[in-house]
Design a protein that fits this description.
- By secondary structure, the chain is an alpha/beta fold.
- It has 2 domains: about 280 residues, Spore Coat Polysaccharide Biosynthesis Protein SpsA, Chain A (Alpha-Beta Complex), CATH 3.90.550.10; about 290 residues, Alpha-Beta Complex (Spore Coat Polysaccharide Biosynthesis Protein SpsA, Chain A).
- Helices cover about 40% and strands about 15% of the residues.
- The protein is built from 25 helices and 25 strands.
- The protein has a 9-stranded mixed sheet with strand order 13-16-15-14-17-23-19-24-22. It has a 7-stranded mixed sheet with strand order 5-4-3-6-9-8-10, sandwiched between helices. The chain has a 4-stranded mixed sheet with strand order 18-25-20-21.
- The protein is elongated and about 85 Å long.
- It starts with a helix and ends with a helix.
- It comes from Dasyornis broadbenti (rufous bristle-bird).
- Keywords: Glycoprotein, Glycosyltransferase, Golgi apparatus, Membrane, Multifunctional enzyme, Signal-anchor, Transferase, Transmembrane, Transmembrane helix.
């Protein structure tokens, strides 16, 4: 080891000589080139021999200087040659499998942090090497609970992924809600070189529930205190982030700061940028004890291995117990306790430059953290006002945040070239399925859509509903895109029960929907509507995928499979619940048909009873659904019989039948091969019939289709011959699959199709 260090000292001395000698020489030359404070050119071509200032002695001095410069250059060349020989022998001593590191060109984007943080944690003090290897995994911990925080995490992760050049491992301390949302999101996002692990936040409540906390983050705002106990024991270091953080640089730069820690420093924190801990914000303001201004815990670097050895768990508990005797509760959650510990043990903290946590709450000193846009590293929206906070440059910060908020997350599925990634079974299966498709097939794009994995964000808005205890509850299921958003309020007024909606949107449209919903009193008053965002990808509207997503995430035993363009009759929710009991849907395979009608009027006085509907039908204000363009779709409902029916009646399946039905939640999914327009419901009803569902028409139920402009997909169907050819091909393949799956009983579908 001593020999290695001596060798490295020689190497370092040689390096300094290469840099120092020419620097001193040129300073000397430069200084010598001034006469009376004015510069004089060193070039012989630019000298003036006839000038009175020009003398023979000065010419000799200049010539001797030029000779000395040439000698120094020769010495430098010799030194560089020695250095290159030493470097060619050096790499053998590096440890780890990945020797390639960030260069300034590949860089972390910040030469200062790269220079300052190049001491590797596992090497001896006499050696230096770059801090973040190219394929080194960066660990990030985030505490997340609830629907709103889950949305915030997505924006944070986008900003990290946008800048990153390293594999990432996210450790998410999440409650059951956040875990369901984020597990589905990351599973369908399929970002290479990103690993996600979840830790049950609800199990950690007992660790911190004894601490009274006034902060709006509640009990989850205290859970960063127990990360040494929660995270894997072999995890040595981690970056801890609040959910309201936005990155403006590569997170590897922050990871590199760990190598600046010295001695007993185990916490990396930015100074608090408000006067909170100074205790002068208002009269009788009494904050928790802190060192000076204290530290903000929105961004923390934790050296977990050292913290465990220091018995961090015992340290913060004793401090909290002592301070709570006089303070009674925390005002800023974990931040108060971290600061109280640091006040007693200032040697624990390494103070990060404040650009690593630019705190945008009211009355902060955040403007002192940056002079230019390039100075910004991490932005922290740590005010309850969030984007409405007061700040001189808030418009710039808001636009930066909105950029990531609306950024297409699909573009972040980029590979890290040169870094091996863990085998992902789902990704491998997807690639195998796609490789089996014939790209020369004229229907290739249709077939490919069946295997496309769409990024999915469940429960985009707050959802809170407990199904009725009598096991009769029914959820309305539908799907929509941005152009049908105006139907939401009307449906909520007509249907008071739970609703599950799948929305096909881009990232930017998802934010437009959020603003629309938050501005609607009708939608905000309803907590029993589950909004599930399926992000746009590909050229087709994946109608059956959307239906499956909405079906899968219901909490009731029954569901009403509707479409967004239909308004159910007033009172249909209660009527269906009674029908479920009356027709023993729990113990029989039945599909209850809700007869469908339509109007061509945008303004309709909605019928409040069957009698009123029949009157409007006779007057020509209403029609049976699609009677003038697609009679076969609903003809088997037998509207003539329905007019006078007072009890449920059974009907038989016929070709192209596509009614709207109420079924148990365990009914088969829709077939994903059908996208856009055509056969998407027909195929589902056919499969229900193949599984021996009994179709029963409800005599006092109805729904009305509201007029709208033709969809993009129906326009393509009507104008594109190849579209229609491919749909016909997919129909035939579906029928063949039905025959193979259901055997002889499925032959009637082929016969019916040929006769229709």
């Amino acid at each position: 080891m001593l020999g290695i260090c001596r060798g490295r000292r020689k190497f370092l001395a040689a390096s300094l000589t290469v840099l120092f000698v020419p620097a001193v020489t040129w300073i000397y030359l430069f200084a010598g080139s001034f006469e009376d404070g004015k510069p004089v050119s060193l070039s012989p071509l630019e000298s003036q021999p006839h000038s009175p200032r020009y003398t023979a002695s000065s010419q000799r001095e200049r010539e001797s200087l030029e000779v000395r410069v040439r000698e120094v250059e020769e010495e430098n060349r010799a030194l560089r040659k020695q250095l290159s020989l030493a470097q060619s022998r050096g790499p053998a001593r590096r440890h780890g499998n990945h020797s390639k590191t960030y260069s300034m060109e590949e860089g972390t984007g910040d030469s200062e942090s790269l220079r300052a943080g190049i001491v590797a944690g596992n090497s001896s003090e006499c050696g230096q090497q770059p801090a973040v290897e190219k394929c080194e995994t960066i660990h990030v911990a985030i505490v997340c609970a609830g629907y709103n925080a889950s949305r915030d995490v997505v924006t944070l992760v986008k900003s990290v992924l946008f800048h990153r050049r390293n594999p990432l491992h996210f450790h998410l301390i999440a409650d059951a809600i956040a875990k369901q949302i984020l597990a589905t999101l990351f599973q369908t996002w399929m970002v290479p070189a990103v690993r996600i692990d979840f830790y049950d936040a609800d199990e950690l409540k007992s660790e911190v529930s004894w601490i009274p906390n006034k902060h709006y983050s509640g009990i989850y705002g205290l859970m960063k205190l127990v990360l040494t106990k929660t995270l894997p024991s072999n995890l040595e270091r981690v970056i801890v982030l609040d959910t309201d953080i936005t990155f403006a640089t590569d997170i590897a730069e922050l990871w590199a700061v760990f190598h600046k820690f010295k001695g007993q420093q185990v916490l990396g924190l930015v100074e608090n940028q408000s006067d909170w801990y100074l205790g002068n914000l208002w009269k009788n303001h009494r904050p928790w004890p802190a060192l000076g201004r204290g530290y903000n815990t929105g961004v923390i670097l934790l050296l977990l291995d050292k913290l465990r050895k220091m018995k961090w768990e015992q340290m913060w508990r004793l401090t909290a117990e002592r301070e709570l005797m006089s303070m009674l509760s925390t005002s800023l959650a974990d931040q108060d306790i971290f600061n109280a510990v640091i006040k007693q043990n200032p040697f624990l903290v390494y103070q990060l430059p404040c650009f690593w946590n630019v705190q945008l709450s009211d009355h902060t000193r955040s403007e002192q953290c940056y002079r230019d846009v390039s100075d910004l590293k991490v932005i922290h929206w740590n005010s309850p006002k969030k984007l409405r906070v007061k700040n001189k440059h808030v418009e710039f910060f808001r636009n930066l945040y909105l950029t990531f908020l609306e950024y297409d997350g699909n573009l972040l599925r980029r590979e890290l070239f040169g870094c091996p990634s863990e085998a992902d079974v789902n990704s491998e299966n997807l690639q195998k399925q796609l490789s089996e498709l014939d790209e020369d097939d004229l229907c290739y794009e249709f077939r490919r859509e069946r295997f496309t994995v769409h990024r999915t964000h469940l429960y985009f808005l707050h959802y809170e509903y407990e199904p009725a205890s009598d096991s009769t509850d029914v959820t309305l299921v539908a799907q929509l895109s941005m152009d049908r958003l105006q139907m939401l309020e009307a449906i909520c007024k007509h249907w008071e029960g739970p609703i599950s909606l799948a929305l096909y949107l881009s990232d930017a449209e998802a934010q437009q929907f959020l603003r629309y919903a938050q501005g609607s009193e009708v939608l905000m008053s309803r907590h029993n509507v589950g909004y599930h965002i399926v992000y746009k990808e590909g050229q087709f509207y994946p109608v059956n995928l959307l239906r499956n997503v909405a079906m899968k995430h219901i909490s009731t035993p029954y569901m009403f499979l509707s479409d967004i363009d239909f308004l159910p009759m007033y009172g249909l929710y209660e009527y269906l619940r009674k029908s479920v009991i009356q027709l023993d849907l729990a113990n029989t395979k039945k599909a209850l048909i809700v007869p469908a009608f339509e109007t061509l009027r945008y303004r309709l006085s909605f019928p409040k009873s069957k009698a009123e509907l029949l009157s409007m039908l006779d007057m020509g204000t209403l029609f049976t659904f699609r009677y003038h363009v697609w009679t076969k779709g609903h003809a088997p409902t037998n509207f003539a019989k329905w007019r006078t029916a007072t009890t449920p009646y059974r009907v038989e399946w016929e070709a192209d039948f596509e009614p709207y039905v109420v079924v148990r939640k365990d009914c088969p999914e829709y077939d994903r091969r059908f996208v856009g327009f055509g056969w998407n419901k027909v195929a589902h009803i056919m499969e229900l019939d193949a599984q021996e569902y009994e179709f029963t028409v409800l005599p006092n139920a109805y729904m009305i289709h509201m007029p709208h402009a033709p969809s993009f997909d129906i326009t393509k169907f009507r104008s594109n011959k190849q579209y229609r050819i491919c749909l016909k091909t997919l129909k035939e393949e579906f029928q063949q699959d039905m025959s193979r799956h259901y055997g002889f009983a499925a032959l009637k579908y082929l016969t019916a199709e040929n006769n229709s």
